[in-house]
TrEMBL record:
<protein>
    <submittedName>
        <fullName>Aspartate 4-decarboxylase</fullName>
    </submittedName>
</protein>
Length: 208
């Protein structure tokens, strides 16, 4: 954002500046985005998404992430309460959703709690998924206590991401079928896996 307007990171087009000749905006946006806030006050006026290296981050989901981790750790220690301190087990399915509601109530007002409650409400009430199963999947994931099953993407996470893709990529247009999603670290990793798979299956050969 620059002077109250949104500019795409790295944009090199032209704008009309108060009736004068069109001026190049690339240098202007890059200059405003560069450096830290203390070094370059103009940085405060611009959110630059860049190419995967933005100068900002979303704090609300990160607060939710840490609160989910605390809840998962509590569940892990609860399942091995009979063991010495420092050991935890896998979360227990039974009563997990109810214990989360108690955790959220006990931590009302803590940053991230409302976000987590909203996520659970969306998954359960709008997508029709089982709230307890979703919480268990998230707890196992954040605890890194098991191999992901299926390994290409967690079961309920795939349903949620597929719903997002339908909304953003298809909208209200007719759509038949569903997505099979393979989560990767990022776009570069995705391209690497695709070409490696094609090579291993003899669909492409090294160029000469």
């Amino acid at each position: 954002m620059l002077d109250g307007k949104i500019y795409k990171g790295g944009f090199a087009g032209t704008i009309q500046d108060r009736g004068a000749q069109p001026v190049r905006t690339q240098g202007r946006t890059i200059k405003a985005a560069g450096g830290g806030v203390a070094e370059r006050p103009a940085n405060a006026a611009m959110l630059n998404a860049g190419r995967g290296n933005p100068n900002f981050l979303a704090t609300i989901p990160r607060h939710g992430f840490w609160q989910l981790g605390l809840f998962a750790m509590r569940e892990s220690e609860r399942s091995f309460a009979h063991m010495p301190e420092g050991l935890g087990g896998f979360p227990k399915h039974q009563g997990l959703e109810e214990r989360f509601e108690i955790f959220a109530r006990d931590n009302k007002g803590v940053a991230g709690i409302d976000f987590l409650r909203g996520v659970l409400s969306y998954v359960r009430d709008q997508l029709g998924l089982d709230g307890g199963e979703f919480l268990y999947e998230m707890c196992e994931g954040i605890l890194a206590s098991n191999y992901p099953v299926p390994d290409r993407m967690l079961k309920l996470s795939e349903v949620i991401v597929a719903q997002y893709l339908k909304k953003e990529m298809i909208g209200k247009h007719p759509f038949v079928g569903d997505f099979d999603i393979f989560a990767t670290e990022g776009g570069t990793a995705a391209m690497t896996y695709i070409f490696n798979t094609m090579r291993e299956n003899h669909l492409i050969t090294p160029s000469r």
